[in-house]
Amino acid sequence: QVQLQESGPGLVRPSQTLSLTCSVSGDSISSGGYFWTWIRQYPGRGLEWIGYIYSSGDTYYNPSLRSRLSMSVDTSKNHFSLRLTSVTAADTAVYYCARDRESGFDYWGQGILVTVSS
Amino acid sequence: DIQMTQSPSSLSASVGDRVTITCRASLGIRNDLGWYQQKPGKAPKRLIFAASTLQSGVPSRFSGSGSGTEFTLTISSLQPEDFATYYCLQHNTYPLTFGGGTKVEIK
Fold first, then answer.
1. Alpha carbons A105 and A36: distance in angstroms, whole number
2. Which chain B residues have a beta carbon less than 8 Å from that of A62?
3. Does residue B50 contact residue B41 with C-beta atoms inside 8 Å?
4. A45-49, A114-118, B61-65: lowest mean pLDDT where?
5. Each residue of B33-57: pLDDT tens digit?
6. Contact in structure between B26 and B99 (CB atoms under 8 Å)
7. Do A102 and B91 touch (CB under 8 A)?
8. Alpha helices (H) in A1-118, listed in sequence order
9. Do A96 and B96 count as a contact with CB atoms less than 8 A apart?
10. A108 with B50: Cβ contact below 8 A
11. How far is B36 from chain A (nearest CA, A)?
12. Residues A29-52: pLDDT tens digits?
């Protein structure tokens, strides 16, 4: 059974950097074939695709976030990470990691609420 | 970005009702569309991918149809556990985009 688990701080100060990690079990990131993805959900419903990283380290980011976003992967630890710089209150959301094989997201983490506030 | 317009944004229905939710894409996306169900406090769960392929383990009362720009999710006989919010997702063009969601409530 594939499982994903997000971890990181639940509170980030404005202008600081949001850092999250997604730990994967039941599948090996290094085996390839999947796009390891971050998605966020704003309070009230809206879902936004943030971007993905492949096992090779190749990435594709949402253009709306590209200037502030970076992702990395550590295949030895079987996890991947997100860094979003210069956060504002508009970045407050539940952040999900998910697995994608170009047909949508078949496995999701449980999500982590990140609040941007001083 | 491809805009996904989902309708209605909410609906009230009774157990046993047939429910239809529509998603319209601003550009043609072939059949690269999925439907997701989300319950409060939980991550979305995929029900259908490639417009009409049922995810393993999902009850057959769920079905999807459409291609190009018009897509439909149908629940043939609404069950108590189906009261949730439903989203469509286009996975044809990056950035991937979701519909705004349809909340299915108990009448």
1. 9
2. 94-95
3. no
4. A45-49
5. 999 999 999 999 999 999 999 999 9
6. no
7. yes
8. none
9. no
10. no
11. 9
12. 998 889 999 999 999 889 999 999
